[in-house]
Structure formats: structure tokens, C-alpha cells
Amino acid sequence: MKISLGRNMNSLRTTKTLVLAMLVSTVLLATACYNTTTGRVDVGGSINFELPVFSQTGSHAINMYTEMHYQPSYRIQEGPRILPPEGSVPVTGGEVFPSSLDEFQTLSVPPKFAVNYDDNSAWHTYQVNCLVCHGEGLDGKGPITTLIGADGALAYDRGPFPADLLADPTKNATNGELFGFISGGGRQGLAVRLRGKDSTSPMPEFSKMLSEEERWALVQFLRSRIGE
Hints:
Elements: H1 2-31, E1 33-34, E2 40-43, E3 47-50, H2 101-105, H3 111-114, H4 119-129, H5 131-134, H6 168-171, H7 175-184, H8 186-194, H9 212-226
Helix pairs in contact: 4-9, 7-8, 7-9
């Protein structure tokens, strides 16, 4: 036990020494003059040493950037969307996806989700995932519809506007259809997916982004706002 403790103390002292050396080196380099061709470092005229360099091309043969804006990235709602691998199953278990719109029409809110429905939680889910397109008032006039494209025109002038969720097509849809539209990327996205093709709908397939319970909560949220 004593031997182990002694080794641990030695290791701790070694670590502290290394950290102190790194801090001193950092301070020295911050106030030093570094020759990028020879590697010579002069600190105040009295301290001189050499650091490694790329002898043929100088120290900047490889540019390494730490700033996030230099890294390739995708903005919110910008394609291509990074989705789970095809056929992957979440840890909560797989979900049986109907193969036709007729099957969706007959679906109803599962009792286990109905009894646990929380309107505040559903509103938050809507705010995060739906409001940007469908708007705070569910009228299809979300912030994204006001974006201006590079040509100076409204970005949505070149594509379909988000659906007005207060209109009759949404009101007259069954709960199962609403669940299908949310899961499959809107009416257009679901119709294409059910034909086994890739969707070009601007609406994401939320079956790959939200849990089954979250999507049924959105159905109940919509129904509480738009009526039967």
C-alpha cells in the first residue's frame, strides 16, 4: 500500500511539473520572436532556442484552423439532412410503419400516449420543429417564408409554401392521416415515400427525428387547436 501511494505521489509531481513546463513555454512563446524559416526563438535577447519547422516550405506548409466557421457544416433546415442509417432501430424499439394512406386513416392516438399527453411539452415540440415553417399561429406563415434568396426574391417563391394547418385539408384529415403527414414529410413527402421513392419535400420526415410519442403528441396538439 505504501509503495502504491508513493508511486501515485511521484506521478502527481511529474504531472504538475509537466503542466508547469507547458505554461512557462506558452508564456515564453507569447512574448518571443519566432523565425518561421529556421525555427530560432529569441526571448528578450537573453534566451535562445530552436523549435521544429518544415525545412523546405516553412512552418505553414499545413494550415490548421481551429475556428468553427472554417469547418464544413449544414445550417438549420439546410440539405442534405443527416438522417439515421436506413433500417436502423432506436433503443426504444422498432415502429411498424403503415404501407398505405388507407392504413394511416384508420389509426387513432394510442391510449398509452393519450393519457400522458402534456400540452406544454407538445407546444415546445411544435416550437422547436414546426413553428419556423407553419408559424406561431399555425397559419403557414412562419419565419422561413420571409427569407430572401440570393437573387433578391423570397426563397419560397421557388417552391411550395408551408401548409396552413388551420385550413380544411388539415381539419378534415383523420388523426391517423395527421400522424402520417408528420411522420412522412407532409402530404407530398408521405405520398412519395409510400411509393418507395425518395422525397424532395422541404418538410423533413419526422419519423426519423421525433419519437412515436412526440409525433402523436403533435397530432393531439393540432387537434386541440383546429378542432375535429
